[in-house]
Recover the amino acids of this structure.
């Protein structure tokens, strides 16, 4: 889940026949004219977190702490403090993996996206596997002040290869008998016991008896067992969130169903007064959509992370290749029985959140379409009303135009009549009534033609 930047390892130097720097991934100048800047980083990422080489017997303590993602967690300063106490070179600030020998113990640190793990290893024989832990060699104040919140604390003991398997009495003293699980691993290479409980010392317990486990293979098996413990708890972090979100989703679901039902009634009734209510419903739907998106943004990371952690648990269980012992559950059987309901609950809540978001968006789109349709219908009615008013105005304009022709003709003919009378008084042989009668049609036609020309020009310019 995290990106490795570097490693400090104080294991013995490699033998003389070890691969050269070129073979191990160190750049060689002049090999290619153009080379991708991430070529070596991507290749080295495959070897970022090597397994520890374990020689049984060994006791191991592992702690996983939750950290604030993307913030200074104080991890580097805490590791530097431990290194300064033991005279060990500390890791650089950009290192997400660190492994070093501190003398009485060996410490392995890994920084992931949202958590960090501290694994303490102590080689050497022991009489009682869990009477003491490897973590007792850490400074108590340093262990108590681990940055973040401790989510996992596990003690794992690898028994010597020689010697008998622990008997039932010994196992009942170390584990809770009714919760005990056991299985043979990796083709009968080892056997594991655990009860997956937190004991009085605040730690889970895992007991491993190797039969045919070379150091590298022992390191792989131990790391897978520890990762199962860590990833199991990290996956289950989503369960309380799912239980908290479930009732809220039920409430939102009921509200959305009520709004959708009211929308359907409005559509069936088809009344003209529904537009205002539909606008109110659209506002309520937008509020529901905003609430769903708030829940999605607040919890989607937790659920997506849980899916990834559940998948990692499945992968690590597959890699163990467990074989069942009569009368006992395997680790897979135990976890499947307990984790499967939690996984289904988380997946169900995540799917309900996504489904509610789609339903709210679809209902809002439908209602918005109906509101737009009603508004379009109202606009069409308004345009039809405006068209009727325009036709009435045109008729009124034509009526006024006819009256204007008559009025202009009347006054113009009157003026012509005054002129004819004046000419008749001056002795000009003009008979005013004839002049007035002849001027009426001429003036009327001229005025009508002139107004018609003006109206056509105005219509053309408009």
């Amino acid at each position: 889940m995290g990106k490795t930047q570097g490693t400090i390892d104080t294991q013995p130097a490699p033998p003389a026949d070890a691969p050269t720097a070129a073979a191990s991934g160190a750049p060689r100048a002049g090999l290619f004219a153009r080379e991708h800047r991430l070529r070596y980083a991507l290749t080295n990422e495959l070897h970022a977190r090597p397994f520890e080489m374990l020689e049984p017997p060994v006791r191991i303590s592992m702690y996983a702490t939750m950290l604030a993602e993307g913030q200074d967690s104080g991890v580097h300063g805490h590791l530097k403090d431990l290194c300064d106490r033991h005279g060990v070179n500390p890791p650089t600030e950009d290192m997400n993996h660190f492994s070093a020998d501190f003398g009485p113990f060996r410490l392995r640190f890994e920084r992931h996206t949202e958590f960090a793990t501290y694994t303490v290893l102590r080689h050497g024989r022991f009489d009682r596997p869990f009477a003491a832990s490897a973590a007792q060699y850490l400074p108590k104040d340093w262990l108590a002040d681990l940055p973040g919140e401790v989510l996992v604390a596990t003690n794992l003991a690898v028994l010597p290869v020689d010697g008998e398997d622990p008997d039932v009495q010994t196992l009942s003293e170390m584990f809770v008998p009714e919760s005990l699980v056991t299985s043979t691993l990796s083709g009968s290479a080892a056997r594991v016991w655990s009860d997956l409980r937190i004991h009085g010392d605040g730690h889970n317990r895992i007991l491993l008896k190797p039969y045919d486990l070379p150091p590298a293979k022992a390191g792989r098996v131990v790391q897978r067992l520890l990762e199962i413990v860590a990833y199991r708890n990290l996956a289950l972090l989503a369960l309380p969130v799912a239980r908290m979100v479930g009732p809220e989703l039920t409430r939102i679901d009921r509200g959305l169903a009520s709004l959708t039902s009211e929308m359907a009634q409005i559509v069936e009734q088809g009344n003209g007064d529904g537009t205002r209510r539909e606008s109110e419903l659209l506002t309520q739907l937008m509020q529901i959509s905003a609430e769903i998106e708030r829940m999605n943004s607040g919890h989607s990371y937790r659920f997506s992370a849980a899916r990834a952690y559940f998948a990692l648990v499945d992968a690590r269980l597959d890699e163990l290749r467990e074989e069942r012992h009569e009368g006992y559950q395997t680790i897979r059987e135990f976890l499947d029985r307990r984790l499967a309901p939690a996984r289904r609950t988380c997946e169900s809540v995540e799917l309900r959140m996504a489904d509610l978001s789609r339903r709210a968006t679809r209902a809002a789109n439908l209602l918005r379409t109906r509101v737009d349709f009603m508004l379009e219908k109202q606009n069409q009615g308004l345009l039809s009303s405006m068209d009727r008013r325009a036709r009435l105005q045109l008729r009124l304009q034509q009526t006024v135009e006819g009256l204007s022709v008559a009025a202009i003709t009347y006054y113009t003919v009157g003026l012509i009549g005054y002129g004819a009378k004046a000419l008749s008084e001056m002795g000009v042989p003009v008979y005013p009534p004839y002049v007035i009668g002849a001027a009426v049609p001429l003036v009327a036609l001229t005025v009508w033609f002139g107004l018609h020309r003006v109206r056509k020009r105005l219509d053309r310019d408009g």
